[in-house]
């Protein structure tokens, strides 16, 4: 794990941008190896002060977002599907028993 003082501007920007892209805290922590404490401290401080206001910023938010996207973090969440009921399980089992002798040629 990295220490809070060891983070550079880019890594702080990654944390803030990932959160603004609606990535979960757990995703960001696992992907980049930051602790939850560091993540929350950096994000809280960025919310308290205007993070991108300084003229020393040498990268744009879009650059950070593109890099996060290229690293594999996506903002989509899996769709919830209904679970199989006992009736559905029984129907599937019946169908499988009726068709267990099928081959690729059928």
Q: Could you walk me through the main structural features you see in this protein, from its secondary elements to its overall organization?
A:
This is HTH_Tnp_Tc3_2 domain-containing protein. Residues 58-101 form the Transposase Tc1-like domain. GO terms for molecular function: DNA binding. It is built from five helices and no strands. The chain has 106 residues and is mostly helical. The chain is 53% helix and 0% strand. The model has no long low-confidence stretch (mean pLDDT 79). Helix 1 crosses helix 3 (36-48) and helix 1 (9-20) packs across helix 4 (61-70).
Main beta sheet = none
Bulk shape: elongated
SSE sequence, one letter per element: HHHHH
* Distance linking N and C termini: 57 Å
Structural class: mainly alpha
Give short descriptive properties of this protein.
106 residues; Transposase_Tc1-like; mainly alpha; DNA binding; HTH_Tnp_Tc3_2 domain-containing protein
Helix and strand topology:
Layout: H1 9-20, H2 25-32, H3 36-48, H4 61-70, H5 86-98
Helix pairs in contact: 1-3, 1-4
Put the structure in a nutshell:
This protein is mainly alpha-helical and 106 residues long.
